[in-house]
Write a sequence for this structure.
């Protein structure tokens, strides 16, 4: 099971940017689709961005399209989420996740397809 550790969260003003990072524990990570999720207080965890195992295809939920970018660096065992034009409604705990099986696509995170979760990092956007 891949171990994941997020970093890069913090407090930012509306309109600002943050870059979240997710470090995987070992090289097997490079064979798994990855995703970013978030959970705001009182709400369910939301799937917001995914990237397929090869890094060639991405998916975004509508509310972050054009503002967030997911990417991965297989050599460094890292996944990133660049967040621009942040809004107060982006405030949440952000989680990195790995697919439950290798060689998956951007549908990871649906139908229970989560193999590993990170511990989460808090993002707070002030108005």
């Amino acid at each position: 099971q891949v171990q994941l550790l997020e970093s890069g969260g913090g407090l930012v003003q509306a309109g600002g940017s943050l870059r979240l990072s997710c470090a995987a524990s070992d090289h097997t990570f490079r064979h798994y689709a990855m995703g970013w999720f978030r959970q705001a207080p009182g709400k369910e965890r939301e799937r917001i961005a995914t990237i397929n195992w090869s890094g060639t295809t991405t998916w975004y939920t509508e509310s972050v399209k054009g503002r967030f970018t997911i990417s991965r660096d297989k050599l460094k065992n890292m996944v990133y989420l660049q967040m621009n034009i942040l809004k107060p409604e982006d405030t949440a705990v952000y989680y990195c996740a790995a697919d439950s099986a290798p060689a998956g696509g951007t549908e990871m995170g649906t139908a229970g397809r989560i193999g590993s979760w990170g511990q989460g990092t808090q993002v707070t956007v002030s108005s």
About this structure: The radius of gyration is 13 Å.
